[in-house]
Design a protein that fits this description.
single chain, mainly beta, 8% helix, globular
Length: 253
Amino acid sequence: MNIGRAAGLPIHLEGLRLGFDGGLEAVTPQARTLDELRPVLYNQTAVGPDAVYLMYRGVGWPEDRERAARRGLRFDLTVVTGELLGGEYARTFGHYHPPMPGSDRTYPELYQVIHGTAHCLLQRLRPDGEAAEVVVVMAGPGELVLIPPGYGHLTINPGPGPLVMANWVAAGFRSDYEAVRSRRGFAYYEVEHDGRGYFVPNDHYTALPPPRIGAVLPPGRLMLQPGDPVYRCQADRLAFLVDPAAELPVDGD
């Protein structure tokens, strides 16, 4: 399946893997396996595909990668299977970002759906580790999702086919997965019953706030037209990803 127009790069999708065309340098993905995800799954005895999602880091034309690296940025692609994991929709592990140097503002991140549908689950924690706020952003092809400072996040694929996500992120920082592992996941799991998805509370949290629906990011905030590949976003519009003094785009709420 050719997804190059949506991605802004000559790539295609073969099952769960990306193919690189037109002289674009191929990137070897890092796989997140079912066994690696098991500690944070709704059903920890779930059966499913061995590889749940593939992460392609540092994708792009050489001159674009070099330009991004000079600004401390990296462009990635992630492919998430559409198969269920013991009744739960396939999703990423989930993590939090550290603060930017010299600031208490944590690194934000910018996503775009290239193919499929994404349910992005964001949560903000209280000082005691309990969930203070839970937000679900439902995004379709071409739509943008902003992960604002202070929020952990994971991406859910409600299927039925694979989900392809692109993202711009600051290069080089180390994400925090242990805070998610210690609670056996985020505050809610999304499971399927009778063909419909439901959010089920994670009983390793207490007094959970109900999930609220968040909005996708209007592309005009990044000087993009609807459906424009985020890969082509001008670098100065991405300064907020690496500079704590840069203005954050409004998320549309």
